[in-house]
Amino acid sequence: MSNTRVLPLLESEVPETVAPCCPPLTERPFTAEEAETAARMFKALGDPVRLRLFSAVASHEGGEACVCDISDVGVSQPTVSHHLKKLKEAGLLTSERRGTWVYYRVEPSVLAAMGKLLTIAPAAA
């Protein structure tokens, strides 16, 4: 003998006015190309030193920073150069040599692309 029983269904139809419990967070899934780009960006920013360097460049007055202005992140100068190279390879930074110094700038499209990736989709009306 089983202790299970079937409960009666209270309503046979779901009213049309019921909103979904969990609206989508983004407008659509990534394309393969978008996913590749996002993965490359986030992988490059996955290291705390690189994230600090990227943040230092992005927030620096004038929108660019000399390596001499941002190298105080608790690692050696060669390590800073290595991390800046990784950020450039990921397409997050550009650089320009002026005399003996290298100046870094956030790639103009990067912040907009990151913002778009992280923006919640507008709620359906």
Reconstruct the topology from this structure:
Blueprint: H1 32-44, H2 48-59, E1 64-66, H3 67-70, H4 77-89, E2 93-98, E3 101-106, H5 108-118
Helix pairs in contact: 2-4
Based on secondary structure, the structural category is: alpha+beta
End-to-end CA span: 51 Å
Please name the CATH topology of the domain at 32-118. Answer: Arc Repressor Mutant, subunit A
Uncertain residue segments: none
Note the total helix count. 5
- Give the H and E element order: HHEHHEEH
**Which CATH class of the domain at 32-118?**
Mainly Alpha
How many runs of DSSP E, i.e. beta strands? 3
Task: Tell me the CATH superfamily of the domain at 32-118.
Answer: Winged helix-like DNA-binding domain superfamily/Winged helix DNA-binding domain
What does this structure look like?
By secondary structure, the protein is α+β, with helices and mostly antiparallel strands. It has a domain at 32-118: Winged helix-like DNA-binding domain superfamily/Winged helix DNA-binding domain (Arc Repressor Mutant, subunit A). Helix content is 42%, strand content 12%. It is built from five helices and three strands; from the N terminus they run ααβααββα. The protein has a three-stranded antiparallel β-sheet. Strand 2 and strand 3 (101-106) form a beta hairpin. Helix 2 (48-59) crosses helix 4 (77-89). The N and C termini lie far apart (51 Å). Keywords: DNA-binding, Transcription, Transcription regulation. InterPro entries: ArsR-like_HTH, HTH_ArsR_DNA-bd_dom, HTH_MetalResp_TranReg, WH-like_DNA-bd_sf, WH_DNA-bd_sf. It comes from Streptomyces violarus. GO terms for molecular function: DNA binding; DNA-binding transcription factor activity. This is ArsR family transcriptional regulator.
